[in-house]
Amino acid sequence: MIDYQHKPLPSKVSKLGLIMLVVGALGIGLSFVVDSHRAMFNYLIMYMFVLSIGLGSLGLVALEYLAGASWSTPFRRVSEFLASVLPLLIILVIPLLFGIHDLFHWSHPEAVEHDAILQSKEPYLNVPFFLIRVGVTYVLWLGFYYIFIRNSRKQDTTKDPKLTRTSGKFAALFAPIFMITITIAAIDFIMSLEPHWFSTMFGVYYFAGTVLAAFASLTFISVLLKQNGYLSSRISNSHFYSMGVLMFAFNVFWAYIGFSQFMLIWYADIPEETFWFIQRAEGSWLYFSYGLVLLHFIIPFLVLIPRSVKTNLQRLKIMAVWLLAAHYYDLYWMIMPVYSKEGVLFGWIEIMYPIAAVGLIRTMFTMQANKHNLMPIGDPKLESGLNFHLN
After folding, report:
1. Which among 80, 114, 236, 291 would be 20 to 30 A from 168, CA to CA?
2. Each residue's pLDDT tens digit, 189-210
3. CA gap 279, 189 in Å, rounded
């Protein structure tokens, strides 16, 4: 028997999220008044971070259906609620569309006219086609989001196992679309900031960071819900082992892709490719790059290796927050050198954007959690998931 009873989260949780969102939004508005160009680059970082959480969480929902996994079923609603930021991204992308000329050098016709490389890329890098790609990707993301969420919530009342099989079929269709569209988003919004540069591994690099961020978000929130009695009492520390393993695995995968991309470009020594890394190895950006390796790979790698850590809820919670911060750090490393080539730029403007991002995600999550069950009580795999234990 599933011992679960829905109860709303404490009001202080939603209030804090709303306060963070309001403070962050006011700070963002002020930053555009003070320095609109700098603000636009910070806004892009925040946008790609929120996209990572939302789209990555939708990917985890589809992955569970596709793999037929049961250990993650008790926690799937967390990912569903995190994915609820996706519809909001349609609104959040609007400032970026109005700021195309501030962000993207290729969007200026006079720049393309005198640049042979940009002319060769113009069939892809042009404003109309850019807008079409943004529109198509959002239609696809939202279409699959509503399918998965509708089936999951409907199953809470109908208990119909056919809904799980239907979602599994859509998950198989979503898998290649997810990989293609996330690559398009990474190329369009990040890689094309430096239109002379290219990397065939860049989409995979952003994918690795996105899935890692989604697992970290899932882990952090699931641990909090468990510690405060919002999930079934049958969920033990052993249930979180796989989350620790997957955070560790995707962090290593992120490092592997990042190093492979760097090594291949550096070894080939082609000026059109190496300048991107050279720019991040000069001045204070060099130390920032060292910091990325230390904070995003070495420390999480060493901390998450022991088996005991993967069932220690407090340590898992700390490392989940650590990896989310490291992902934001990584996005800053990818994007901000385009604006501030002379060195790392950090001030109150840079602080406002992550505050707004966390406030937005927290607010959307609490709204969903207060309206819907925190566990998919109608899913036929839930009983198996609650019975999971380590051998």
Report:
1. 236
2. 999 999 999 999 999 999 999 9
3. 19
Contact 9, 369 (CB under 8 A): yes
CA distances from 165 to 71, 162, 327 (A): 17, 5, 34
* Cβ burial 106-136 (10 Å sphere, 16+ → b, else e): bbeeeebeebeebeebeeebbeeebeebbee
Hey, is 127 helix, strand or coil? helix
Q: Round to whole Å and give the CA distance between 217 and 320.
A: 7
Question: Is residue 391's pLDDT more than 70?
Answer: no
- Residue at token pair 């790392």: 344
pTM, entire model: 0.97
Q: What's the first-to-final CA gap in the chain, in angstroms? A: 23
Residues present in the chain in total: 391
For 96-129, the pLDDT digits (tens) are 999 999 999 999 999 999 899 999 999 999 999 9
Phi, psi of 356 (to 5 degrees): -65, -40
In the structure encoding, which two tokens stand for residue 85, read together?
Answer: 């930021």
Q: How far apart are CA 126 and CA 118, in angstroms?
A: 10
The domain segmentation of the chain, as residue ranges, is 11-386
